[in-house]
């Protein structure tokens, strides 16, 4: 169960074609897409696309204070429940709701929600809801409160990047990451840091730059057809939300952590990595279990940091190649960093699809007995997980499709940005060869980690 909560589920596949055909096929699909973009995409389309306002009545309902207060109250209640279960419930990964809720329902389950319906996280964010409630009460009994410090421009999203790295370190590197008491401590620490940041710099500023999940879900929601413009719900052309420059400091690091952490999750599931972990544990566990856990975490952390650094390095080399091809000056990372967001989504789908489809079903059983005390509050405690929601081959084809489509989408966005920047399709195509190599490398690397898990 612990490994189930840490990774998606792999399976032996009896595929009708050799594995190498998937590598070559995905690479050819990207090359053909690249050539088609050069021939047919002559002007920037995504950058110039303007959102169209949705109906006023729908906007009032979706963006109105009533729904926001209701969702905030529910999310704050869920945070309290999960924290209480993690702190006081049975120390069982299988029967305590906290591990499944944090790593499956929240971390994985919210991804398709924000991609399909837009950035709902500000309304669901329990720390934001609590801060709004405190601010509302305080405004009625005291003069308007001003944060004591102004958030500086230089750090940008670096605080959020550090906190995201801390979360994925807990998830992927710490040996006992799914233990309820570990999660209780993590929730308490993150809550304290978040509310402290809001108190010092103001709620909006900290949510925009320092709250890791606000930045994470906010970036993924740029892929959604729904957005908010001028206080109204609006519809936008697919991918147009990321076809722009983002010069906020720390954004490249944050996106590299998004991508690199999932890449490491795949790497850590491969046989060579698991055999290395086993040898470390076998050498130390009997004489010094504490040292064994520390060594395992250190080895995993080095792998995680290496994966993040490699993702960032490949991207920076690619954009430097684009700059040299354009014979330009300055850095282009800010221009193309958002083109990596579809790849981050593709990696998340490919690696965590099975986790959501299978372990996500456990929530129906756990809501009736969140503390693992043997309750049956809603009559669902006997729910049995269906392990055959999809066949192994169907899952594999979905994973391959997600990776290829995600990288094709990234090529489209990067090409649109290049056409807008350099003024012609020919110049844009010349600068994007390095990005094509980047996309092929990411795709083949993702397929390899999935196929060897």
Shape: globular
- Quaternary structure: single chain
**Can you count the helices?**
21
> Structurally, how many domains make up the residues?
1
Q: What pattern of helices and strands is seen along the backbone? A: HHEHHHHHHHHHHEEHHHHHHHHH
- Unreliable stretches (pLDDT < 50, length at least 5) are none
| Whole-angstrom Rg | 23 Å
Distance between the termini: 17 Å
Write a short abstract of this structure.
With 453 residues, the chain is mainly alpha-helical. It is built from 21 helices and 3 strands. The chain has one domain (2-451).
Outline the fold blueprint.
Elements: H1 2-6, H2 19-40, E1 52-53, H3 56-63, H4 65-88, H5 97-106, H6 110-117, H7 121-124, H8 126-141, H9 158-172, H10 180-201, H11 203-209, H12 212-221, E2 226-229, E3 232-235, H13 251-268, H14 271-284, H15 289-326, H16 333-336, H17 341-358, H18 362-366, H19 392-422, H20 425-431, H21 433-451
Helix pairs in contact: 2-19, 2-20, 2-21, 4-5, 4-8, 4-10, 6-12, 9-12, 9-13, 10-11, 13-15, 13-17, 14-15, 15-20, 15-21, 17-19, 19-20, 19-21
């Amino acid at each position: 169960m612990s490994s189930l909560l840490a990774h998606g589920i792999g399976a032996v596949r009896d595929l009708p074609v050799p594995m190498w055909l998937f590598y070559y096929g995905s690479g050819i699909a990207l090359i053909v897409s690249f050539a088609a973009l050069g021939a047919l995409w002559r002007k920037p389309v995504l950058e110039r696309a303007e959102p169209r306002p949705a109906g006023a009545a729908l906007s009032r309902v979706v963006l109105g204070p009533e729904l926001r207060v209701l969702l905030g109250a529910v999310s704050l209640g869920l945070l309290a429940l999960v924290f209480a279960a993690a702190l006081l419930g049975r120390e069982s990964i299988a029967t305590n709701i906290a591990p499944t809720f944090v790593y499956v329902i929240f971390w994985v389950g919210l991804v398709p929600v924000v991609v399909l319906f837009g950035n709902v996280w500000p309304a669901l964010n329990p720390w934001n809801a609590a801060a709004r409630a405190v601010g509302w009460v305080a405004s009625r009994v005291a003069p308007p409160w001003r944060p004591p410090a102004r958030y500086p421009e230089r750090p940008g999203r670096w605080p959020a990047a550090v906190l995201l790295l801390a979360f994925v370190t807990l998830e992927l590197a710490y040996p006992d990451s799914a233990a309820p008491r570990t999660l209780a401590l993590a929730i308490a620490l993150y809550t304290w840091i978040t509310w402290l940041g809001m108190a010092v710099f103001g709620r909006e500023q900290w949510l925009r730059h320092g709250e890791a999940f606000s930045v994470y879900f906010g970036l993924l929601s740029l892929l959604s057809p729904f957005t908010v413009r001028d206080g109204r719900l609006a519809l936008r052309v697919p991918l147009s939300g990321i076809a722009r420059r983002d010069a906020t400091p720390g954004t490249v690091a944050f996106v590299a952590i998004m991508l690199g952490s999932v890449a490491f999750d795949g790497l850590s599931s491969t046989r060579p990595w698991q055999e290395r972990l086993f040898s470390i544990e076998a050498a130390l566990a009997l004489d010094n279990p504490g040292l064994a856990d520390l060594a395992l975490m250190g080895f995993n952390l080095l792998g995680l940091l290496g994966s993040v650094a490699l993702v960032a390095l490949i991207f920076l080399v690619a954009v430097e190649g684009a700059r040299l091809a354009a014979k330009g000056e300055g850095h282009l990372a800010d221009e193309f960093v958002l083109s990596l967001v579809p790849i981050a989504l593709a990696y998340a789908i490919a690696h965590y699809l099975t986790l959501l489809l299978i372990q996500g079903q456990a929530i129906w059983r756990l809501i009736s007995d969140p503390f693992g005390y043997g309750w049956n509050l809603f009559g669902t405690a006997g729910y049995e997980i269906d392990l055959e929601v999809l066949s192994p081959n169907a899952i594999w084809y979905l994973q391959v499709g997600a990776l290829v489509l995600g990288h094709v989408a990234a090529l489209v966005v990067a090409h649109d940005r290049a056409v807008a920047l350099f003024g012609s399709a020919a110049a844009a195509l010349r600068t994007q060869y390095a990005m094509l190599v980047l996309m092929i490398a990411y795709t083949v690397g993702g397929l390899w980690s999935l196929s060897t898990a």
